[in-house]
Amino acid sequence: MFALLNELSELVYISDVNTYEMIFINESAKTLFGVGSDVSGRKCYEVLQGRSSPCGFCTNSKLCHDKFYTWEIFNRKLSRHYLLKDKLISWNGREARLEIAIDITEKENQKDTLKNALDAEVAVLNCVKVLTEAESHGDAVSKVLENVGLFLAAERTYIFEIRDKFIDNTYEWCAPGVSPQIDNLQGLPISLISFWRESFDAGQCLVITDIEELRETRRDEYEILRAQNIRSLIAAPLAADGRLVGYLGVDNPPAARILHISPLLITLANFITGTMQRRLYQRRLEELSYNDMLTGLYNRNAFIRDVESLSKNGFKSLGIVYVDVNGLKKCNDEYGHAAGDLALVKTAKTVESVFREKGNSTYRIGGDEFVVLSPNLSEEYFSSLVAKLKAKIGRDEDGMRSFSMGWRWASGGCDIQSLLTEADEQMYLDKKQFYRSKAATKRYRACSDEVIGLGDPEALRCQLDDGRFLVYFQPKVSVADHKPIGAEALTRYLSSEGALIAPDQFISLLENNRLIWMLDFWVFGFVCRKIRQWLDLGKKVLPISVNFSRATISETDFVERLEEAWRQWKVPKELLEIEVTETVELDDEKNFLDIVKRVKEAGFRISIDDFGARYANLSLFAASCFDVLKIDRCLVRDLPDNPTAFAVLKAISDICRKMNIRVIAEGVENERQLNALLEIGCDGLQGFHFSRPIPLEEYQAKYLNAQEGRGTA
């Protein structure tokens, strides 16, 4: 029998159940446990477990003669897992224990690996949930570092971010009893991680199992790590757009785990980088949303925000200055828009130079209008600043003042809107003095005499029915090959003498009289009717965009009226694009956003028009509820010679590309602008360089005739 047991590769032994003395151990077990041929008198717990007393987990009490008792154990002496089969036997009149041990270490290792992988997956999912659901980016990252530290049983987890040639510890979690290091790890030279870059550039973790290995070869790095009580670490790269932006680090994880946690950290690093990029984009959007791109001042969005804040929080006193640039239209017409922009920038610098001290805020709230809010200043001091600004007003070549201004001051408890109105009225009185000496100007005639009567709804309806409003089309072309990709429908008014009147002569009149909706829906119906005719003729039809004033689109029943107008012709909605203009300010921005989202949900495409002109509404941008962003001509005009405008548009284009928003540049007039826009990465172009707005008949001849395409739908 012994000979048979000695042939087995499994471990077999027999021991006395009462005295624990070894009776027999087979050759495989002798070899593994390192015992000689004679084990008589030795105890089983001594030979097998290296213990000096019986094992607390001994199963003698559970054994019987009829069947084997099966269980598992990790043998610490051998560092192996075993499946054990035990039963009682009679041996020369003694009650003995027979045990057969089968090595299942590999199987257990596989189970442990699978369990660790599943645990890591759960940990990653929990961290991703935190990153995506938390309102605060900082709170989310801090919670993720805590989760990672606890899961890995590490002493410290942290994030470093690269700032030019330096690295800063921006986030940190420490286990209980571990001293924080974040304050000591700011502005470190990036050269300290130069040896780490090879791993990071390959998208791999940097693993240091023992920092003592660095003592001689990388002394500076070693001293910084040793000062933080770091014995080992693992770091995963944070990369965005192929560029290293930082790293995620774990200090002193258990030695048994340090070589197996790289996949977890790489995955988490990717999600953290995504969150950091979203934070960066959000910060850029906020900057764009509240800053005027031309002058660098706050814009109308910031003005509305700050007025609401003052109204809510109160103030001891409030001074308001209204400033309006004189003769801007004349300057634009005679010297070009670059000269007009220069006048605006000069005015902005002049106003800000007087009201630059803390507490005062200067805003560009319209094309040529600026406002200063000065809370909590004494009336005497505020008046001295106003006098200083008046003294700085420049003169043009005719000796006329460069800008007009009005101002008001009141103690706390006043109505801000009333104060604004009073300052505005004073500014316009000042402005009239300027234009009284400029008899030739028509600055204060909102439109020509020909169209003043359009302020009457019945007169407007008659002119629409009589065909006095004409729809022109300006093509949009692909930036890649300059082939047409769509067109914008634009309105002209035909005077009684047969002259075409541009929309800037009648749009403001219709908006002020709340009649713009009549023209907007008339143009929309005209475009739908034409698209239906073209489709029925088998023409290849390109998408047409129709402008809607924000006054029109802000009406609560706008979507229903839009659907009703569309149902008359039922053209494919992908051939229609709703362009939102920014000429009317809204009190209820949330309501406007809701309407825009409903327009999208109804299947129409949304385009934000005139982005960058005046106070383009970037709350829409942040909400990502539109499909196309149209860059206004004021940014395109001097793009080749304006590095700031180029950088802004490049950042906007990059953000739009990531958000799947198409970018169309308006006002493209020459090759230099075109080349700059190609470098920026716009999707489409529109402007005189390709085509002026053309009449319907010319558009049909150039872009529709003899083209087969989409049939009746």
Helix proportion: 40-55%
User: How would you state the average pLDDT, rounded?
Assistant: 85
Question: What would you give as the CATH superfamily of the largest domain?
Answer: EAL domain
Largest sheet: 8 strands, mixed, barrel
Low-confidence stretches: 395-400, 438-447, 582-587, 706-713
Write out the strand line-up for the largest beta sheet, numbering strands in chain order.
Answer: 16-17-19-20-21-22-23-24
CATH topology of the largest domain: TIM Barrel
Envelope shape: elongated
What is the end-to-end distance? 91 Å
- What is the level-2 CATH architecture name of the largest domain? Alpha-Beta Barrel
CATH class of the largest domain: Alpha Beta
Care to count the β-strands? Answer: 24
Q: What's the helix count? A: 24
Number of structural units classed as domains: 4
Estimated share of beta-strand residues: 15-25%
Radius of gyration from the alpha-carbon trace, in angstroms = 39 Å
Helix and strand content put the structural class at alpha+beta
